[in-house]
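Hi there,

I know you've been waiting on this one. I reran it after we fixed the sequence typo, so this is the corrected version. Both the input and the resulting structure follow.
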Amino acid sequence: MFIADLYAYTGGKPYDPGRPCVVFLHGAQHDHSVWILQSRALAHRGAAVLALDLPGHGRSAGPAEGSVEAIAARVAAALAPLSSPGFILVGHSMGSLVALELAVRLGERVRGVALVGSAFPMKVADTLLAATRTDPAAAMRMINVWSHSAALAPFAARPGAPGPGFNIVWQNLRLMQRIARINGAAVLPTDFAACNAYAAGLDRAAALACPALFVLGAADQMTPPKAARALIAACPRARVLTLADAGHALMTESPDGVRRAIEQFCDEVNAAHAAAA
């Protein structure tokens, strides 16, 4: 379905505007499909689910926005008219920064924020930032090596997952290549520059009026757990779950760990809201 000009995957179930809504926000050079396992699981448990393609990604109208603030403004404008009684925001990497900004814009309608593979500041190495502009193919390969735990031996011939012939590293690379083919070469440098430039993380975290859950990968090379410490400390009500052996691509490296964390968080914040009503 579309909300305004943004595509939203509803997890294989019709969207119910009368239920609290879990909004999934993907990271750089991705689309809603990175949340396919978690979004479907929540939808089939009865939650209203909107897994978005951010502006200029996947099926959503472009171009890609040049800042985290601009992305959040577009998403807030799309969500604001919905009659949902409340939102739980779940963001990965760049999407986690968007979730912080979005929580400020939506205010008391946000019941909780789950930040997956997050960090602040989310600085990008100069070499990688330059490669996103001058050699995107090389940049995407670097990103995929650093986005997965070393135990997977990225781009090795052996499978990167238990299923025969299934390799999550190659799968992620193909997704990034598809985004470039459909939405243009400018998406990758725009996304990474937006992450690199974002400066409001601590202020937005401190302003959160709702609980925050951090889901971090112990083997994350892109946003290592120590890089989230300042953000965690700034949140008035933060809880941290670190998944062992998972890298930055937590949703595929530890799909059930991420699913269970989000499900439990949603249950807790919705129960707390019902008790306070």
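Quick highlight: The CA atoms of residues 5 and 61 lie 6 Å apart.

Best,
R. S.
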